[in-house]
Structure formats: structure tokens, C-alpha cells
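Notes continue from the previous slide.

Worked example: a multi-chain complex. Inputs as given:
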Amino acid sequence: MSLLRDIAHELLGMFLADFRLTVAILALVLLVAGLIFSLGVQPLIGGSVLLAGCLVILVEAAVRETRRRHRPQSDG
Amino acid sequence: MDSITWGVAAPAVGAAFLASLVEVVEAFTIVLAVGTLRGWRPAVLGTLAALGVLGLLVVALGPMLDRVPLHLLQVVIGVLLLLFGMGWLRKAILRSAGVIPLHDEEAAYAAEAESLATTARSKSQSLDWIAGLAAFKAVMLEGLEVVFIVIAVGAGRGLLWPAAVGALAACVAVLAIGTVVHRPLSRVPENTLKFGVGVMLSAFGVFWTGEGLGVEWPGQDIALLVLAGLFLATGVATATMLRRPSLEISR
């Protein structure tokens, strides 16, 4: 059972290491899909939004984690 | 049958090779600890059993990929690649900036040796069984990631075989070097590799997700290099920015 639990934990950890990063990526993909399929935006513009969004999400996730780790214990 | 040019296959082979290299080095450290401390029989048996289970998984799940519509497959794999690749890249940026410590294969080896010794003291089970299970678990867990990476970078364009060859080459390289040096491969620039792999997987993720949503990238496969360049530049710039102590002050 421990082995199965470890495998499940590893599989989840592969994709859900940072909950907010995961939610942000999924929301971005849904947004781009909505832009293309619902609003009729040109796919290449949608692709550009996807790329730019991913880069912003990446920077935000790294900065957020850095600030969290540097925050003094007394803040929380 | 369509012939696959090297220009098309190279990104998939390279990404699979580098990503697998990182995972195989981690698995090798554990197997080496088991083999050195408890003998090579349980280490080899555990490794072979895990490779057998992984092989069965690939054989069972592989044909199912052909039945999934290409655009749906590209979106699903693209999103999974984004989650996986950007997670790796985020961690590599944080390690590069010194925010979190680097992964240490020597420490991982020592931890596994201590874990084996503790388990042996507290349980009455056969030590060989415990050691074999440790090797099985390490190869299974890291191998699952290798299987995912091969499928992820290969399935969207019919490049499963080139990607598998890249992963296999990584296994052979680690085994060959490991057999010669016979100690944890601590001098592998693991974070640099993870940085590069995170960049490539994220680029593949944007590429596949976009294609699945109907985007026709300018330059087709060449766009992968542009996407990778942008992720690399952003990652390096972010790591450089996070190294500056002023970030703490400007909070």
C-alpha cells in the first residue's frame, strides 16, 4: 500500500507541485480556448496570449515563492 | 510511411534524452546505494521488475494513444507538459537563485543508506526483500516520469520512437558512466539540466497546446526554438533578479 501511495503521490507531484501555478495554467488555457472558439479571435493571437501568459505566470510563481521563503516567521 | 527528418526529430530526441538523464541519475543513486550496501542481486532484481512493469504499462497504454483524436491529444499532452515543465522550470529558477538548495546526489545516497539501515533494524523482513523493494520503487517512480516525457514530447507528431531512443540513450549513458565511476553521479550539473529540460518541456507545452487549439505557428517546428529561447531568457532573467537582495526590501 505504501508503494501505491508513493506512486500516486509522485504522479500528483509531477503536475501539481504548486497549486496556484497549476490553477493559473489551467485558467490561462481555458481563457485562450474561449478567445479562439467563443470570441472568434485569430488562433495565432490566441497562441501569443498563451505564450505571454505562461511567461508571466512563471515569473509570478518564482517571485511569490521567493518572497514566501524570505518572509519573517512573525509575519504569519 | 512518412519519413522523419532529423530536424523534426531532434527537439524530441534532445528533450527526452536530457529529461531522462536527470531521472535516471536519481534512480541510479538509489540502486547504487542498494547494490553497494545489500548486494547486487536485490538491486538488479528490483530494477528489472520495475522496468518490466513500466514496459507493460507502455505496451498497454501505447495503442490507446492512436485512438485519441490528434487535436485532443495535443491539448491534453500540451497542458500536462505545461504543468510539468513549468513546475520544473520554476524549481530550477529558485535553485539557480539560491532560494532553495540544490539537489545533492551524495546526500540522497547517504539518506537511502540510512533508510535501509533503519528499516533493517526495525523490521524482521528479509533485508534482500527490503533492498529489492527500494530499488524497485526508485526505478518505478523515476521511470514513470521518463515514460510520461517520452509520450509527451513524442506522441503529438508521431515521434514516439525517436523520443524513446533519446530516453534509452540516457539510460545507457548513465549506466556506462556509473559502472566506471561506481559512485553517485554528483558532478552532473543537475540544476542546469533541469533548467534546460524545464525550458524545452514548457516550449513543447505551449507548442502542442497551441496546435491543439488550432494555432498554426509561423515556421512550424522552428517555432519550438523561438518558444524555448523566450522561456530560457525569461528564466535566466528571473533567476538573476531573484538573486538580488533588493527583492526582499521591495516586498
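Summary box: Chain A has one domain: 2-75. The mean pLDDT of chain A is 86.
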